[in-house]
Amino acid sequence: MAAWLEVENLHGWYGESHVLHGVNFEVQEGEVVTLLGRNGAGRTSTLRAIMGLIGMRKGSIRVRGTETIQLPPHRIAGLGLGYCPEERGIFSSLSAQENLLLPPILAPGGMSLDSIYAMFPNLKERANSQGTRLSGGEQQMLAVARILRTGAKLLLLDEISEGLAPVIVQKLASMVQTLRRQGYTIIMVEQNFTFAAPLADRFLVMEHGQVIQEFTQSELPSRMERLHEYLGV
Question: What CATH number is attached to the domain comprising 126?
Answer without folding.
Answer: 3.40.50.300
